[in-house]
C-alpha cells in the first residue's frame, strides 16, 4: 500500500509540475472510480491529495467531487458512526466544490453536484446511524429540485429524466414516512 501511495503521489506531482491538466485529472479519476476496498481507500487518499495540490480551482473542485463520490461509496461498506462520518465528509466536500462550480458560472456542473448532494443525503437517510431520515430526505429533495432548475428536458433529457426519477423516489420515501407516522 505504501508503494502504491508513493506511485499515486508521483503521478499527480508529475502531471502537476508538467501543468498537464488532462494527465492530472486522469491520474485520480481512474483510481477513485474503482470499487474494491483497496481502490476506494487509495482513491480517497489520492483525491484528498489532489484537493491540496491541484493547480487550478477547477481541478480542485473536480477532486473534491471525486473525493465525495469515493467517501460515499466507502460509507456503504461502513456501518455506525464511522460510516456517518464518511457521509458527512462527502457533503462537506461537495459543498466545497460548489464554491467553484456556482449556478451562475458553471450551471451544469453545479446541477451535477446538486444531484450528487441529493444522493448523499438520501444515503444519509438510509444509513444505520440516522435516527430520523426525514431531515436528510428533505435536504435531498431540495438539492434535486435545484438540479432540475438547470436540466432542460429538451436539451438534457437524460439528466432531466435521472433527476426526475430521483426526485420521485425521494418524495415517495417522504410520503412513506408521513403515512407511517400517522
Polypeptide structure, described:
There is one protein chain. This protein has 182 residues and is mostly helical. The chain folds into two domains: 1-81, no CATH class; 101-182. It is 80% helix and 0% strand. The chain has helices spanning 2-17, 21-32, 37-53, 57-75, 80-98, 107-126, 134-150, 157-181. Helix 3 runs antiparallel to helix 4 and helix 7 (134-150) runs antiparallel to helix 8 (157-181).
Strand and helix map with partners:
Blueprint: H1 2-17, H2 21-32, H3 37-53, H4 57-75, H5 80-98, H6 107-126, H7 134-150, H8 157-181
Helix pairs in contact: 1-2, 1-3, 2-3, 2-4, 3-4, 4-5, 5-6, 6-7, 7-8
C-alpha geometry: flat
Beta content? under 5%
Topology as H/E string?
Answer: HHHHHHHH
Residue-averaged pLDDT: 85
Number of helices: 8
Structural class: mainly alpha
Structure described in brief:
With 182 residues, this protein is mostly helical. It has 8 helices and no strands.
Annotation keywords:
182 residues, mainly alpha, 2 domains
Amino acid at each position: 500500500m505504501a508503494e502504491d501511495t508513493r506511485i499515486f503521489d508521483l503521478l499527480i506531482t508529475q502531471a502537476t509540475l508538467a501543468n498537464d491538466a488532462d494527465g492530472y485529472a486522469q491520474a485520480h479519476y481512474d483510481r477513485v472510480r474503482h470499487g474494491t476496498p483497496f481502490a476506494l481507500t487509495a482513491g480517497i487518499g489520492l483525491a484528498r491529495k489532489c484537493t491540496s495540490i491541484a493547480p487550478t480551482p477547477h481541478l480542485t473542485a473536480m477532486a473534491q467531487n471525486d473525493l465525495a463520490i469515493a467517501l460515499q461509496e466507502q460509507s456503504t461498506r461502513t456501518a455506525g458512526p464511522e460510516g456517518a462520518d464518511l457521509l458527512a465528509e462527502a457533503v462537506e466536500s461537495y459543498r466545497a466544490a460548489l464554491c467553484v462550480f456556482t449556478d451562475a458560472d458553471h450551471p451544469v456542473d453545479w446541477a451535477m453536484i446538486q444531484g450528487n448532494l441529493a444522493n448523499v443525503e438520501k444515503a444519509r437517510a438510509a444509513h444505520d446511524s440516522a435516527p430520523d431520515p426525514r431531515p436528510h430526505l428533505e435536504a435531498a429533495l431540495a438539492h434535486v429540485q435545484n438540479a432540475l432548475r438547470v436540466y432542460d428536458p429538451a436539451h438534457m433529457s437524460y439528466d432531466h429524466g435521472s433527476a426526475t426519477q430521483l426526485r420521485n423516489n425521494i418524495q415517495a420515501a417522504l410520503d412513506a414516512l408521513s403515512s407511517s407516522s400517522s
